[in-house]
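Record type: monomer structure entry
Structure origin: computed from sequence
Chain ID: A
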Amino acid sequence: MRSILKQKLLWIAALGYFVDLFDLVLYGVVRVSSLREIGIPESDVFTWGATLLNYQMGGMLFGGFVWGAIGDKHGRREALFGSILIYSLATFANAFVTDVHTYALLRFIAGFGLAGELGAAITLVSEALPQKSRGLGSAFIATIGFAGAAFSSFITQHMSWQHTYELGGMLGIALLIARMSVHESSLFLKAKMKNAEVAWGSFKQIVISKQRLKIFTLGLIAGIPIWYVAGILSYFAPEFAKGYRITGEVTAGTTIMVGYIGAMIGDISCGYLSQWLQSRKKAVFIFMLVGAIMAISSAFFLYDQSATTFYFTRMIIGFGNGFFAMLIAWMAEVFGTNLRATVAITISNLIRGSVIPLTLAIQFLKDRIGFNRASILIGVVCFGSALVATLFIPETFHRELDYLEE
């Protein structure tokens, strides 16, 4: 019976990430068509597209702090319920926007809602599974989530942008109903009952401790390449294809789809590699290195290639990028039960929010050194910093999670 409940929890957590990535990819695919249809001139599509992406990620940044605190103060389950409800309503409303300012506001609210999904789900699953299976649980969540991204990039190319937003909202409501039967983490409940006087869900506890702040910052730096690939290389694939003089049409939707197919294979592979090596650190480092080599080197050999070669390269880069869930699980394991959801939810959204300075950087540099050269420079900085940061995060593969941060 207990095994069945854990399997059910895994599926519900994974489907939450499915909906999460469905929405994030959805905007990337319909960015151009939706902005054109509400009256944005062609010359302003890139600028407004980046702006709306920043609004969405800004919502996720703000939501990360709110849902993180809720997850530790009131429970992982509460964060999962509240976040999916807000996301579903905002995403459904996106189908009816007629001006860019309302569009931006709703992307902010949807981003705020989505912020609680991945971190809360991984925290709940990590506390429910035995130590030997935690890595595989995170890999399963990521695999189903990336399937949502691939599905989104496929289906949104065969529906109007309004209908895709309606579909995203309805998927969220269906998931909300499915979550009615989810139970709170027993590890969390027991620890909260015995240690009510300890600070729960306080981000201040991270900031005031040099060691905790150091590890949190290293985890954040380690995750930034994920959104360099997803938020820059994939979302703006048509612009890159023009710079590379790619023959044949390249769309953001197909690029995102093949990238997430690669990431889906990569994440389950990263989970198994972590189990085989008995190390989070080694598995994440190896995948990050593969992603770095492919992302940077591709900028030199893609010139005058076909669209097929472009897509295949993006899929391989996506494979190397398949360490996000493992990284979040790793960071959740580093911190005690009273700060675990705060860290997992906050850091996952700060990583996603890193796309804001990344898009601002590429907008600033593209007119000075060119779009592709700007992406290379930003990529070298992101991957180089992340590889170094990974070396200094403590290993947690064998760590038991029943402890608190004093």
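Annotation 1: The chain has one domain: 2-184+201-390.
Annotation 2: Residues 2-184+201-390 form a domain with the Growth Hormone; Chain: A; fold (CATH 1.20.1250.20).
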